[in-house]
Design goal:
Layout: E1 2-6, H1 10-21, E2 25-29, H2 32-41, E3 43-47, E4 52-54, E5 58-60, E6 73-76, H3 83-90, E7 99-102, H4 109-114, E8 122-126, E9 129-135, E10 138-144, E11 148-151, H5 159-171, E12 176-178, H6 182-203, H7 207-212, H8 214-234, H9 243-254, H10 264-270, H11 281-291, H12 296-313
Parallel strand pairs: 1-2, 1-6, 2-5, 3-10, 6-7, 7-8, 11-12
Antiparallel strand pairs: 3-4, 8-11, 9-10
């Protein structure tokens, strides 16, 4: 396959490296500083999936510099707030047989991309393995909680296409399955990230510490409860029956496996970057307004994180 990976951060590095080594033609797109580093040293993956290195077919900072005019698959792995901008740039790069995989955190990526791309082209991914950037073009895979899930939110894409793509990723070493109800999985990750990521960034502690302190645990419980109230009003089901069943799974299974993990939002703030809070707790608050559900804790957490982000950026 001819594959374009837009964004060579931790996730994009893993996909570009492992897919290249499976025999696919990979073009990477990122900022000039990253491009130069990757051209010189290639992309490298270490961690629980072993050590891998690859020199991509092409790495560019501008789409007009690409040799290819179209691709079989485009993987968008930029931050969620950049989804719409990237989708607009890709609008004229897609052929009739091209698909776009959104491999990002949060809620709203599909809606942002669908403003510029046909829903029949957009695949939504729920990526739940942990990867961290060591340096440009180098990533370490630290944990995997479940297979990557692929799906079409409106079931616009045939399951055969999704299953074939899942097999392609699995053969490359990224365990992947397809689902005809992808939003149940996406929301599972949104709930998890909304409960842990911003609080971990605000309090600057690893995830496990949040569950050890009664005050932060109460905040997480409230975040989870509000999200389930919003989803009930929206008619959106999840993999859990209700907030209580989710919390039981969260504290007994989901959180312990990443107890030592530090929030990506904290890393963003420390590096002077914008966070993805608007696609997590911020998105929950907006949906709450839309469906008439009050979400004071998610709103408060959003404002606190934005305040910390703004103070670091100023």
């Amino acid at each position: 396959m001819r594959i374009l990976v837009f964004g060579l951060g931790a996730l994009g590095t893993v996909y570009s490296c492992l897919l290249h080594n499976q025999g696919h033609e990979i073009t990477g797109v990122d900022h000039p500083a990253v491009v130069e580093k990757v051209k010189e040293h290639g992309v490298r993956v270490t961690g629980i999936w072993g050590e891998h290195q690859a020199y991509l077919k092409q790495v560019v900072s501008k789409l007009e510099d690409m040799d290819e005019s179209s691709y079989d698959l485009v993987i968008i792995s930029v931050k969620s707030y950049e989804t719409g901008e990237v989708a607009a740039m890709l609008k004229n790069q897609l052929s009739d047989y091209s698909y776009v995989l959104l491999a990002q955190n949060g809620y709203g990526n599909f809606e942002s991309a669908a403003r510029f791309l046909s829903p029949q082209k957009i695949i939504l991914g729920r990526v739940i393995f942990g990867s961290e950037t060591l340096e440009p073009g180098s990533a370490r895979v630290t944990v995997i909680a479940d297979d990557v899930m692929l799906g079409s939110p409106r079931n616009d894409i045939d399951m055969q296409v999704l299953n074939e793509l899942a097999r392609t990723f699995t053969q490359a070493g990224i365990p992947t399955r397809a689902s005809d109800d992808i939003m149940r999985y996406v929301w599972g990750k949104v709930i998890y990230n909304s409960a842990l990521n911003p609080l971990g960034a605000i309090l600057e502690v690893p995830y496990g510490k949040l569950a050890e302190v009664s005050f932060s645990k109460e905040l997480m419980d409230g975040i989870i409860e509000e999200i389930f109230e919003v989803l009930k009003a929206a008619g959106q089901s999840t993999l859990w029956e209700n907030a209580e069943s989710y919390r039981q799974d969260f504290y007994s299974r989901l959180l312990p496996s990443t107890a030592a993990h530090h929030a990506s939002m904290l890393q963003d703030i420390q590096r002077g970057r914008k966070t993805e809070i608007d696609s997590l707790n911020g998105a929950v608050s907006k949906l709450g307004e839309q469906y008439g559900i009050n979400t004071p804790i998610n709103r408060f957490i959003t404002l606190m994180l934005k305040a910390k982000e703004a103070m670091r950026l100023s």
